[in-house]
Amino acid sequence: MRSVQLLRLSLPLMAVLSLSGCLGGDSGGGGDDTRTGSLTYNGISGLHYTSASRSETTDDSGQFRYYPGERLTFAVGDLTLAKEVPAAEFTTPLEFLADIRERLNSPGLDDEGLRSHQITEQQLLTDTTLLNLTRFLLALNWDETIGEGEGIEIRDRVVRQLNRALPDLTAPIDFTVSESEFTERGATPSPANQLLAAICFYPADDEHCQAPPTQAEIDNAMPRPEDEDLRDPDQEYQEDLKSRRDRILESVRSLEDFDAEAAQDYLTRELDAITTVIGNRYYLGRETANHPASETDIKEAGIRRINGEPDLAAIEAMSTRDQDVVVHSFSWQSATVDYFIAGDSGGESEIIINFRPANSYRWIRKSLRVIID
Asked: Using one digit for the tens of pLDDT, what is the confidence trace for 65-112?
């Protein structure tokens, strides 16, 4: 069995802007206040979700519909994954867990002293429950690998097999147990691995979905004659049965094929993609400002949003060279930063503007290069 290979995601700007328009948190549908959310950036299709207003399945793009303020329950078939998840434009497995969801609102500080949600995200990616849950989702993807720009695809065939196997597990699946307990194989496999072993990720009539030949059947079969002229093309010999048995058994998935590093890589790329989408909705009125050294009055730099008002929850700013350019003040209400020139002609600085959009824990950065003429 090959280990899952998670390919790096490229995000062309036009594609990002296109998606951000389709998934805009302020957009409704059908003339009401219904909104479209996405389960991760690239989506997790085939998950059932329920809310106060609907009971449906995430579509082929991993999208769902919701009303502002609703909470969702996510399940794969009859197996519940998360409850009371706040509905939002983007939802990731991090929001599935209440304690992690709360900690996302406490950003870390980077080397420049600015707040960053990505520091907190990376710290949380070591959480055992989160990794158990994510590895399980990766293992349910129809293909063993997730290609560039692809999401997790959980097909109806997988869900049907999962539902049939659930009652026969030796214990319920518990994502909160230790990694070793969750991924146990051998004579007493974990419930999660029992479930995966009961699912065939091939068409129903494929050889891999058949019961493997038993050792007794192999032993009772004839060895393959060395002389090719003596071989019966319609006969399955010992070697044929053994090869078929090996192919079937090797196709059985387990959580070992989707390790913690693969889960962390997957979550990181999805989280970074969401940040890129949100960040590309905002811009500064200009990226470079030129001012004579004699102009010492207060200047203003403003955050703008494509097709809407900025609507910020917080903002902060810093100058990389205070001796040349000084940040005077900033305001999240007006989405502006005030600064003034303090240096001589020939000096310059970069003003880093760090802000958090309303209804999001993510911090976005834009920079203004200030040149003193």
From this structure: 999 999 999 999 999 999 999 999 999 999 999 999 999 999 999 999
Question: Do 275 and 362 contact (CB within 8 A), yes or no?
Answer: yes
Q: How far apart are CA 118 and CA 154, in angstroms?
A: 28
The β-bridge partners of 39 are 91
Please, which residues have CB within 8 angstroms of residue 360's CB and are 6 or more apart in sequence?
278, 313
DSSP-assigned states of every residue in 120-184: HHHHHTT-HHHHHHHHHHHHHSSSSSB-TT--EE--HHHHHHHHHHGGGSSS---TTS-HHHHT-
Per residue in 322-357, pLDDT tens? Answer: 999 999 999 999 999 999 999 999 999 999 999 999
CB 291 within 8 A of CB 370: yes
pTM greater than 0.85 (yes/no): yes
What is the C-alpha separation between 12 and 45, in angstroms, rounded? 23
- At 23, the amino acid letter reads L
Q: Tell me how far the alpha carbon of residue 202 is from its chain's centroid.
A: 25
